[in-house]
What we know:
Elements: H1 5-22, E1 29-31, E2 40-46, H2 56-69, E3 79-82, H3 86-97, E4 102-106, H4 112-120, E5 124-127, H5 133-144, E6 147-148, H6 151-158, H7 167-174, E7 185-189, H8 194-205, E8 214-220, H9 225-231, E9 263-267, H10 269-283, H11 289-307, E10 312-318, H12 332-338
Parallel strand pairs: 2-10, 3-4, 3-6, 4-5, 7-8, 7-10, 8-9
Antiparallel strand pairs: 1-2
Helix pairs in contact: 1-2, 2-3, 2-6, 3-4, 6-8, 10-11
Amino acid sequence: MNQPPCREWLRWAIDAIEGDHSRSADTHLVRVDLAGLDGVDIYFKDESTHPSGSLKHRLARSLFLYGLCNGWIGKGTTIVEASSGSTAISEAYFARLLRLPFVAVVPPGTAQAKLAEIERLGGRCHIADSADIYTTAQQVARETGGRYMDQFTFAERATDWRGNNNIAESIFAQMMLEPHPVPHWIVVGAGTGGTSATIGRYVRYRPHSIGCARMAVVDPEGSVFAESWRTGRRDLVSDQRSRIEGIGRPRVEPSFQREVIDRMIEVPDAQSFAAARFLSDRLGRRVGPSTGTNLIGVLQLAREMIAIGEQGSIVSLICDGGDRYADTLFDDAWLRQTFADWDAAGDVLAGL
């Protein structure tokens, strides 16, 4: 019996996404040697090498499969997302793969390089009149008859945290032959909360990591996640927008799961930018600001381990490449204009 046309298209769409995944190699786990941290091995999983250039490639793939299998996405469906850039770029990639229209609703001030990349992939950018990109995205979806993907709600449930090619499973597989195969800490930022939820659940699920691996989330200025983690409040809001694109939110997103997080570390923005510049120089290629935020958290935990005589490993992420931030992170004039204390921002990196 022939399948109905909608099922035929669904099978084609899932096969297209799975075929794209099969053509893509896993991301590398890069060991970073830093002076003064003897006994603590530091690794960064390089998510910038995904076809769409960032960690959000994994999320976008999961969101599309989730939407397809829930019957929310069909042939010709307009895909709409609220995003400051990286998720929109990754969703534009998959929308083009499935030959679907894509609209990214972005806040004012989103990096021009990110807007250009969305458009290069065939998407359309809709700049919201205010910081309330959620309501605007819902309105655009209604007007187009499309599907609002709502990464902030579905990030923690679209990915199979038990281990279906997710980032946590990949980290533990790649660490297997290292001197300290079970990390003492895994350090990530939170944008939607999906990555921290996936990793936090996985380390509780896998018997080799229970009681050993711990989940730390770094949070930039202007974000309410750290305060929510401390207090348990989910009604917190802020009128600030994070300078660290991709992480930090002015509200507690539905996908943020505080119970699976062992530690929150608040990081000053100037230190995040300084650390991203430092790591870019050390690696010989540019990384984005959120990777700098991760590095500051890694250093704090490593120094705490050394202070009490612990040895082990810490794993974090290179979230995206730095070429998208040429007019901010890699613009010396912008940094000095933005941060009055820029000259002292790198003090925490001294001696490395």
